[in-house]
Amino acid sequence: MLNFRAMRNFVVLGGGTAGWFAALELQRLFGTQASITVIESPRINVIGVGEGGILNLPGALARYGIEEAAFIEATGAVLKLGFEYAGWNNGREDDVFYHLFHAAPNAADGSLVDGVPVDWAMLVANGVGVQYAESALPLIRNNASQTETLGVRAALGARLPTSMHFDAHRVAAYLKRVATGRGVRLLEATVRDLHVAADSGHVTALRIEDSEQPVPVDFLIDASGFARLTLGRRFQVPMRSFGEYLLHDRAIPFYLPHPRANPHLVTRAVAMNAGWMWQIPVQERVGCGYVYSSAHLSDDAALQEIEARVGKVEPVRTIRFEAGHFDDVWIGNVMAVGLASGFIEPLEATSIGQMLGQVLTFGELVAGSAYIVPQTSVAMFNERNRVDWMGIRDFLRMHYDVPRRDTAFWRDVNALKLPDTYATLKACWQHRLPRSADLQPYRQGNFMHFEATSWISVGQGTGVIAPQAAAADLARLPRESVVKSHQFLVGVKSRFAL
């Protein structure tokens, strides 16, 4: 049992996006009744050259009382409408598919019939990209300005859901100002060691450099990034690797100027010889990076490939990582968040999305337990976190389930075994479209990042989901629903001259 009512000293080890969001959650939970301290090391820099959120980012800002306009002004953020994938099927940049943010079809307005998103099914059955069902596409194709996009969103409301692209350095600095303005204490120091009670195994204090006075701890949130000072270095908790399903373990970040008059409204993922390149616009520039497999490409060769495609760049540094997560992220009175708890390549912006989901779930668990949390709830929290990562792993694995075979990397990644959970679903999706019920194993009562329509978007783009699967669903629906959706298809083809 953890009695949060009796706790007074809450410490977040590490700042950055994860650390400051965690501090804001602690401040929301405990207010002025407790001391909340964020320890930032002057030796550690924030990782990130352009980052993006998914649809839980706007909700997180609202949860912590942060106005979107203020966030955008302070961080150089721009609106984001989804993801664009270039070259994933055949290596050519004119091979493009989209995963756009969208309002989920629902039975109330007739867009969902017997679990089938009717208009989407009609598009898939006729070989038309599901992005043509979305209000976001014209804005993306026309390179709409931020002002124009905001105006369309104001008119469409929930029919144009958005997230944001942003500069992680500026986000961390802004969240720091917000949190410290609400009473969170900032301590700039380097942690030397953790005091751990022999009887309980709980962290009781932190020793910091150049000070004989330890920092007292009742509950510790580790946001120390890849340093992973608690679970990894101190407690040596085992990690669950994704290496048997995904190959990437390197990234070279860099910057580019904007290639368009206005910031692109999607995260662009361009397939490369041994991986892919992200292109994330913020107000001033585009943050980029090549994510690749070191088994297929050296660091020098990766830089050469970047420059052969986009010209001379100045790489920030090479980031080395192993895709995976800790089996348990909450142990005793320590919880790891963000990179300190796990990491997978930045495809689909899952790192920040997963972190925000974890912080939200923690806050709801503590408050829902009346601030006295039984160990069974902690165990369930850890299980939900594992389930969350499993869903992310499978969704990203689907992105590499493509016909491309022109380089050693694309041949080898396609030869990797599929996770059993994904393989089982894929077999069903040869006969019908994904349904919400399919994804319950990824949910377990927790926030789930990608609903069935997201799997349809990517599955159609990669070829995992064939037109025949959608046609089989349509054949089971009432005739009037099919006729109406066929009229929708005719309208789409006319509007976009397909």
From TrEMBL:
InterPro entries: FAD/NAD-bd_sf, Flavin-dep_Halogenase_NPB, Flavin_halogenase, Trp_halogen
Pfam families: Trp_halogenase (PF04820)
Signal peptide location: none
This protein's name: Tryptophan 7-halogenase
Naturally occurring in which organism (per UniProt): Paraburkholderia sejongensis
